[in-house]
Each structure stands twice: as C-alpha cells, then as structure tokens.
Design goal:
Layout: E1 5-10, E2 13-19, E3 24-31, E4 42-43, E5 48-52, E6 56-61, H1 69-72, E7 73-78, E8 84-91, E9 95-100, E10 103-108, E11 114-119, E12 129-131, E13 134-138, E14 144-148
Antiparallel strand pairs: 1-2, 2-3, 4-5, 5-6, 6-7, 8-9, 9-10, 10-11, 12-13, 13-14
C-alpha cells in the first residue's frame, strides 16, 4: 500500500487499485504472461514494485505504468538459483533478497543482476527477514537459520552461517 494505492498479484496479472472509500478503483493491470500469484509484491521507497514468478523477478515503475509492459517494466531477471520458493525482501541498501528451493539469493534492486547467493542444506527457503545484521530464514526442514549480512561481504566469508554445525552457537533466533 502506498499513497492510497494497493498492489496485488493474481494469476498472471499485477493489479494497482486506488482506495475509493468503501471500494477500490482499478488504476492499471499488467499481464506478465506467467503466474505471479505465488509471492507478495514488494514496493520500494522510490516507486518500484517487485513481483516474482516461479523463476523470474520483475521491477515495475508504478508511476509510469499504464498497464502496457513497455511503459512500466524496468527490468526482469531470471533467478540464478532457479525456482523462487517464497517471497521477496527489500534490503534497505538497494538489494532484493529471496528464498529459493535451494537457498538464498541477493540481487541488485536497480538492475536485477545477481550479487551473491548461498546454498543451504534444505529445500524451500522462506523470504529473508533482517535482524541485527543477519538474514533470518526458515525452511521446510523446520530450522530457522541466521546468515550474516553486510553489504559487500559474501556470506561464506563471515562467521555465519553455521550450517550443519551447532546452530545455537551464538545466535539470537533459532
């Protein structure tokens, strides 16, 4: 929701509605050509809406969009780790992160290019939440993991994650 508008996905479409009091008035509809209903859209502070299908992410300029793809799609990018399993998280320093079937992927929110990805020993990783410099994710195996996050530092170079080790070593969340 932003400035009296709400953005939702259903089927292959992305919808923008204006709050009209007791109802919502359609502003525009964008047909992506593939199902985008599996993830909740994420809106940045600069008016870019991010939506995802099973394997692709789109950046949509909500201020320029009139429903025609050429008017509002800034970029689209295939997930380097293939299938996106859950939602998207916008990291405050201009990166977008998301869970995949095999781990976490971080891309540049400006152009969709991969920044880094990490494979986890599980399937179906959730959209990351950020807590005290860590990306916190859950997965189908029932574990919650904390992966150190710092711009410019690849997670494998940090003391976290403690994968397949004592996962309670020094974390706050389990």
């Amino acid at each position: 929701v932003s400035e009296g508008r709400i953005y939702v996905t259903a089927g292959k479409e992305v919808y923008a509605f204006k709050d009209s009091g007791d109802s919502a008035t359609p502003v525009w509809t964008l047909d992506t050509g593939v199902s985008v209903a599996s993830t909740q859209p994420v809106l940045s502070n600069n008016g870019v809406l991010f939506v995802a299908s099973d394997d692709t992410i789109w950046a949509i300029d909500i201020n320029a969009c009139n429903g025609a793809p050429e008017s509002c799609i800034l970029w689209s990018s295939k997930s380097p780790q293939k299938q996106i399993s859950r939602g998207l998280s916008l990291i405050s320093d201009g990166f977008l992160s998301f869970g995949t079937q095999v781990g976490i992927q971080v891309i540049n929110a400006d152009d969709g290019k991969a920044v880094w990805g990490i494979t986890l020993p599980t399937l179906g990783v959730s959209a990351p939440a950020i807590l005290n410099g860590k990306l916190i994710v859950g997965a189908k195996d029932g574990f919650v993991r904390a992966i150190s996050y710092s711009p410019g530092v690849i997670p494998a170079q940090s003391p976290w994650p403690v994968l397949n080790q004592n996962q309670r070593r020094s974390s706050v969340a389990y």
